Amino acid sequence: MTKLYKLIIFLCLANLNFIVAQQKLHRIHSHNDYHQNVPFWNAYANKLNSIEVDIFLKGGNLYATHTENEIKENYTIETLYLQPLQKVISLGLGVHQELQLLVDIKSEPYSTLKKLIKVLEKYPDIINHRHISIVISGNRPKAEEYVNYPPYIKFDYQSLDKPTNAEVWKKVALISLSFSKFSLWNGKGRMTAPDYKKVKDAIDKAHSYNKPFRFWGAPDSKTAWKAFTDLGVDFINTDLPFESSRYLNSLEKRVYHNNTVSPVYTPTYEYDQKNIPVKNIVLLIGDGNGLSHISSATLANGGELTLTRLKSIGLIKTQSADDFSTDSAASGTAFSTGKKTNNRYIGMDSSGQISENITELLDKENFLSGCITTDDITGATPAAFYAHQQDRSYQKEIAADLLKSKLSLFAGGGKNRFNNNFEESGFTIVNSIEDIGKSTKNKIGFFLAENEIPGVLKGRGPILATATEQSLKFLKNKNKSFFLMVEGAQIDTYGHLNNTAGIISETIDFDEAVAKAIKFADESGNTLVIITADHETSGFSIPHGNIHENMVEGDFNTHDHTGSMVPLFAYGPQSHEFQGVYENSDLLSKILKVLNLNK
């Protein structure tokens, strides 16, 4: 054994310690496993439950090969499978991992099987292991002869016609059939309805016998793996052990069934795109909310969101001054100051100089301003609208900036970051969301949580929509023009976690806040609502789903931000000014233009 091969085995063994246990591990069959660069170990380290090896008897050796012409010296069932499996047992690696060794006999069955039994009996730890089964496939004895073989030998049965002999049937470990007998589907798109029925009927019949089922010669793709999983195939056949394991064993985290459809508000469009004066601006930022995030929430919410009923749509380019992919600090600062800046900078330009933000600028025009978020109120996005710091992690300094800011209203988490010195800065802290709308104070704040705000999946409830509604009421009662920023922060949180359920639930929750703003715009007639994102998070895509069941499967290509453009929606007077494709730093000048303040 070469040093390189030993190193590869060591790394695979080490990898076993880092595999996260899933609530449900799908059973996957490593087809022709001996063709892998690292036979056995690749499949075993990825927790596959069935491993196939073709064997051919020649010169007293059981070679791992499909044909006699393909024999490689030292590639035997012992060197590639039995010895490594013995090492697994002796070291106690994955001892509770169910494993089926499917031995596909390619030479004459009786002499080959006789030799195989002789070899196997050299490994009593394997043949007597309660989590390991040896199953014979390929060239096999006659079915009625199965009972003549040792108890640890089972057989792969390749027919849906059940044998009448009950003792023979007990020797059958699984049923395997060629997929091509039922369908010519190539694993792209969907099976035709007639093919789907034939495939499902075969699986159901095998299950009626209480036997696990496998297709061989089946399509080998994500789409196929998902389809076979939904159909109830017990062993998914693959030549891609790592990819299939990663895909199938993350399905539970990536598939979401939305059980509660959120009501959608239908705008009146009475003032939408009209060239009439704009008095108020409501900017809603879905943190990390890319087009696929919005699409997934739409499809899971019965096919509609309030957002998808808007007509003025644009695209925002998100790159920061110093990086291809922006963070929330740089993007929020670009929105609020009209200048591209470096990642992590809050309210400062790329040279580190303080930049006037929109709340400070509008204060000079007698506007009121407010910030709402499901993040800490000192989080990067809200901070970009009131603070000036060279790093988003300067939480103490950002908190101090809030107290001396031009805001008249804030709502968010992170009360523990403050020293209860609000009154000195003119802020009155109200005790409930409803108190926001009732307050007659000049400057108020409300903390949605002492520490971090929980997600919707953890029982948060519609507090973002309620806080938005109450804040609009508070600002309206002041009889002044206002700017309100509302952030749905945890779309980004669940994007980083690659959690489809979290993305969808948070995006639907964000849309409920959007609905409150759109309804207010309809009632006021002079409010422009802008909805966008600071960046896209996770490279989220939606390969599969069922719109009738409000089910979406998500997939991801990163745990980080991406450089994708993000959509922007606008509603109300002059909303058409926000159509097109432009930089995130252009948003401020567009807002000032519709407010007739672009000097």
From TrEMBL:
<feature type="binding site">
    <location>
        <position position="534"/>
    </location>
    <ligand>
        <name>Zn(2+)</name>
    </ligand>
</feature>
<dbReference type="Pfam" id="PF13653">
    <property type="entry name" value="GDPD_2"/>
</dbReference>
<dbReference type="GO" id="GO:0008081">
    <property type="term" value="F:phosphoric diester hydrolase activity"/>
</dbReference>
<feature type="active site" description="Phosphoserine intermediate">
    <location>
        <position position="328"/>
    </location>
</feature>
<dbReference type="InterPro" id="IPR017946">
    <property type="entry name" value="PLC-like_Pdiesterase_TIM-brl"/>
</dbReference>
<keyword id="KW-0732">Signal</keyword>
<keyword id="KW-0378">Hydrolase</keyword>
<keyword id="KW-0597">Phosphoprotein</keyword>
<dbReference type="InterPro" id="IPR039559">
    <property type="entry name" value="AIM6_PI-PLC-like_dom"/>
</dbReference>
<feature type="binding site">
    <location>
        <position position="287"/>
    </location>
    <ligand>
        <name>Zn(2+)</name>
    </ligand>
</feature>
<feature type="binding site">
    <location>
        <position position="487"/>
    </location>
    <ligand>
        <name>Mg(2+)</name>
    </ligand>
</feature>
<keyword id="KW-0862">Zinc</keyword>
<feature type="binding site">
    <location>
        <position position="492"/>
    </location>
    <ligand>
        <name>Zn(2+)</name>
    </ligand>
</feature>
<dbReference type="GO" id="GO:0046872">
    <property type="term" value="F:metal ion binding"/>
</dbReference>
<protein>
    <submittedName>
        <fullName>Alkaline phosphatase</fullName>
        <ecNumber>3.1.3.1</ecNumber>
    </submittedName>
</protein>
<feature type="signal peptide">
    <location>
        <begin position="1"/>
        <end position="21"/>
    </location>
</feature>
<feature type="binding site">
    <location>
        <position position="496"/>
    </location>
    <ligand>
        <name>Zn(2+)</name>
    </ligand>
</feature>
<keyword id="KW-0479">Metal-binding</keyword>
<dbReference type="Pfam" id="PF00245">
    <property type="entry name" value="Alk_phosphatase"/>
</dbReference>
<comment type="similarity">
    <text>Belongs to the alkaline phosphatase family.</text>
</comment>
<dbReference type="GO" id="GO:0004035">
    <property type="term" value="F:alkaline phosphatase activity"/>
</dbReference>
<dbReference type="GO" id="GO:0006629">
    <property type="term" value="P:lipid metabolic process"/>
</dbReference>
<dbReference type="InterPro" id="IPR001952">
    <property type="entry name" value="Alkaline_phosphatase"/>
</dbReference>
<feature type="binding site">
    <location>
        <position position="287"/>
    </location>
    <ligand>
        <name>Mg(2+)</name>
    </ligand>
</feature>
<feature type="binding site">
    <location>
        <position position="535"/>
    </location>
    <ligand>
        <name>Zn(2+)</name>
    </ligand>
</feature>
<keyword id="KW-0460">Magnesium</keyword>
<feature type="binding site">
    <location>
        <position position="381"/>
    </location>
    <ligand>
        <name>Mg(2+)</name>
    </ligand>
</feature>
<dbReference type="InterPro" id="IPR017850">
    <property type="entry name" value="Alkaline_phosphatase_core_sf"/>
</dbReference>
